[in-house]
Amino acid sequence: MITHVDFEDLGSLEPELVRAGYSVMTVNACNSDLKSPLLRDNDLLIVLGGPIGVYERESYPFLEAELDLIRMRLSRKQRTLGICLGAQLIAAAAGAAVYPGAQGSEIGWKTIHAGRDAALYSEFSELLAPGLRLLHWHGDTFDMPRGAHHLAATDVYPNQAFAIERHALALQFHPEVIFRGLERWYVGHACELGKANISVRQLRRESEIYAPALEIAARRFLRQWLARS
Known about the structure:
This protein has one domain (about 1-225): 3-Layer(aba) Sandwich (Rossmann fold), CATH 3.40.50. It is of the alpha/beta class. The strands form four sheets. A six-stranded mixed beta sheet has the order 3-4-12-11-10-7, with helices on one face. The protein has a two-stranded parallel sheet with strand order 1-2. A two-stranded antiparallel ribbon has the order 5-9. It contains seven helices and twelve strands. Helix content is about 35%, strand content about 20%.
């Protein structure tokens, strides 16, 4: 697993990974060797979120090594899952553009709509359940990589999730979050929330309502995706 900020972790997904027999190793992209064989050759790589842009490679040079790693894994068809920034990195590694969204930040609990190819991935139905809300927390968006399957959209940004064959999955939203873990997000992203004029108290109330159902759905989704041959 690759992280960019410590408080954005695997959350509800970690127990499912352990249940499936995976040993979870955490690597912080900011100060780690991203050319390590442990990342290049492992059975599954999960790349999590962070408050920077894929296009900020001059400011954050480690992004180049991270993109090289993901490109290598995509070329080898090694299983790779990206969430938020991780999804944007997969998009860029697959040749698509990543850029600031014209509609501004999308932060909060919202439903997603099925993309044109969602039916090809039966496990994705867990995240499309009626009434289920997922946490969105991003300002950037991406174009669809050529040949990718489009899985989800919102009214604000049409490209919310895609898959590349059976080995790569990119999720712009956050299925992994759990209610108690989000308190660290409110502190870590305090400046962003203030700039967007988002009430932490309101966001916390919504999280208390919607996070428990998401935790169940996300674990079911990951369990089925991991079982996909």
